[in-house]
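step=encode ok
step=design start
structure_in=
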């Protein structure tokens, strides 16, 4: 990985705890994201190997960025198999938000 790419797209597990300031609970973020997409919360928890679940990725990203929640907290709420899935989902969504105007809005 080049020097330019090395720091790009990192989500710091140890970032300051924004929960106390913003006050967004994971369940609130997941519920609002599901409603915005016309889905149920269970749709975000359903496992679908091999296909991206955009709604779940957005819920992960927003829970992390706006709520300041730890990967393990998000993992448990969204019924993920591995905590690393949260990191991967957040990074993937961050890259998409940077390039897709629809998601940035």
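sequence_out=
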């Amino acid at each position: 990985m080049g020097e330019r790419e090395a720091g790009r797209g990192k989500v710091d597990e140890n970032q300051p705890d924004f929960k106390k300031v913003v006050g967004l609970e994971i369940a609130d973020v997941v519920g609002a994201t599901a409603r915005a997409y016309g889905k149920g919360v269970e749709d975000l928890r359903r496992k679908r190997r091999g296909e991206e679940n955009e709604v779940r990725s957005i819920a992960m990203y927003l829970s992390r960025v706006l709520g300041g929640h730890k990967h393990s907290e998000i993992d448990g709420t969204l019924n993920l198999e591995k905590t690393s899935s949260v990191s991967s989902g957040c990074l993937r969504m961050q890259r998409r938000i940077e390039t897709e105007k629809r998601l940035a809005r």
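step=design ok
step=annotate ok -> Residues 21-104 form a domain with the Chromosomal Replication Initiator Protein Dnaa; Chain: A; fold (CATH 1.10.1750.10).
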